[in-house]
Amino acid sequence: MMAVAAQSLPYISSRRGLRGWKTAAIFTAPALILFTLFIVWPVIEAGSTSVYNWNGLGAPRAEKFLGLGNFQQLLGNKTFVRALGNTGLILASSLLIQLPLALGIAQLVARRRWGSVAFRLIFFMPFILADVAAGLIFRFVFDGDVGLVTQLSMLFGGGEIHLLSDKNLAITTILFVATWKYFGFHMMLYVAGMQAIDRSLYEAASIDGANAWQQFWHVTLPGIASTIRLSVFFAILGCLQFFDLVVPLTGGGPLNSSHTIVSFLYYFGIARMRVGYGNAVGVTLFILCVIVALGYRRWIMRND
Amino acid sequence: MTDRALPATRYIEPTARYVDPMWSLVRLLILFLVAGVVLIPILSTALGGLKTIGELRTNPFGLPHEWLWDNYITVASRERVWQMLGNSLNIGLFTVALTLAVGAPAAFAFAHLKFYGEQLLFNYLILGLTFPFATAILPLFLKIRDLNLLDTHWGIIIPQVAFGMASSVLLMRNAFRQIPDEVVEAALVDGASYARIFRSIILPLSLPILSTVAIISFVTSWNNYLLPLVVLNSPGNYPWPLGLMEFHSLYTTDWPSILCYITLTIMPAIFVFLIAQRYIVAGLTAGAVKA
């Protein structure tokens, strides 16, 4: 048997080579074509038309060529600069508030203790709601007339509170809702990471006299370091593309104070059919994402 | 209870974990507080739908004095609500079907076939993981327009499938790889075709990952907002997030009705989540962990 198998091996492998290639072509073509036609090609087109003043009808015309004009116009646009800043704020609050909160809570519910499973589910629940629904729920919570926050303030003798229509507070309110919606997802990642840590490490540490804080610092954190790096990566990419919550909460207002990069793209590019201009926003976003992704993979996740 | 005494007690019985009762209390306090912040907005939305606008002002947190089920019945008897949930279901199911039909064979090829350019093509596809969808949206809109797919569900399904392809193929390839190459080799020696191997060996062994990918693409589709917003015009075609926004803009201050509408549209998601929570949590987090 062995001899027969060995003899037929070259035959099989050469046949497999050809057949394998044909099969591979048939098996991978649909995926590659779909991806190329509907993602890669549009991204390239976004790049090539971002240098025109174009409304999307017909081909972009040579006399409407602006070079980097769209980008210059963007950087001179106060609303866009504000949108960039807001996106940075969302990113900062995600990294400095949301993820540490998720980590702290994960520490409380990772082990089998009273209520752990139930609390995990409760905290994860906002993540499965659509942003639009979550946004409208908080539109109600923060409504200056009937909202919970206003009612609470009145209970304590205060007046109506209009958080979402205050141009200094609208973006902060959005940050709060984003934390509410997404911390449970990161918490769940950390819980999974913590549960994968070998329990004997904790026993060894406690025999050595490490207290709870030292165990967290020297066993838990190193144990979930790769999970944290990954969750930070997703948080950054998610924040750069932050959009869905903005629409139901503020629509970018009041006075265009709460736009993000993508909501700016939607309201000023897509809704007004300024294709070239909108694509310049898209390209800016693309460059940011690619720089972050490549840099992060190169320097921070290189060992994962 | 002094610090010095603790290690000693632990040393005698290292497996029994000592938990400070004070700390247990603090833990529960924190957890209940956060759970309150998470749940109160959702619960008061559901309860708010049972109140009058006047009672919303005077009794925001409590149970309704009089349970006005009529609010819910009025909203639920709008045909539009069900039509939109149906649209979302339709778009979601086709997205899942197409994602699996296109993604699984590709993942199989990348996992078990050796062919020229394999690594290059795979890396090309994986590039999609970092692409921001918003960058493609305007040219995509023009493409969909040129294909005459504007205002159709296919105009949403196809780009959604294309956009999810990178992560779906990656997840499935990693899982398919767990099936040893020897199994595939043996089947080849026995004269099975690759298509047969894929159908009769790989797929039946990979139901967990297939359902994971199905869950991810369905939830993403069910909650998608930007793409339908750009592609669809007629309210009859709207999936529920668009319908919800439309309803809100029509009845801006009629909060009880809006709250009913929100509750009715998020209920399927919460219901399914509570039934299948283990699979949904595992599925949605797997996308991140294994990527």
Name the descriptors:
heterodimer; A: mainly alpha; MetI-like fold; 13 helices; B: 291 residues; mainly alpha; disordered N terminus
Quick overview:
The complex is a heterodimer of chains A (304) and B (291). Chain A has 304 residues and is mainly α.
- Look at the structure and give the mean pLDDT of chain A: 87
What's the total count of β strands of chain A? 0
Give the H and E element order of chain B: HHHHHHHHHHHHHHH
Q: Domains counted in the coordinates of chain B: how many?
A: 2
CATH class of chain A: Mainly Alpha
Q: What's the name of the CATH homologous superfamily of the largest domain in chain B?
A: MetI-like
SSE map:
The complex is a heterodimer of chains A (304) and B (291).
Chain A: H1 2-49, H2 69-75, H3 78-109, H4 116-128, H5 131-141, H6 148-155, H7 170-195, H8 199-207, H9 212-223, H10 225-240, H11 246-249, H12 261-270, H13 275-300
Chain B: H1 5-12, H2 21-48, H3 53-58, H4 69-76, H5 79-112, H6 118-126, H7 133-146, H8 154-176, H9 181-189, H10 194-205, H11 207-223, H12 226-231, H13 240-250, H14 255-275, H15 277-289
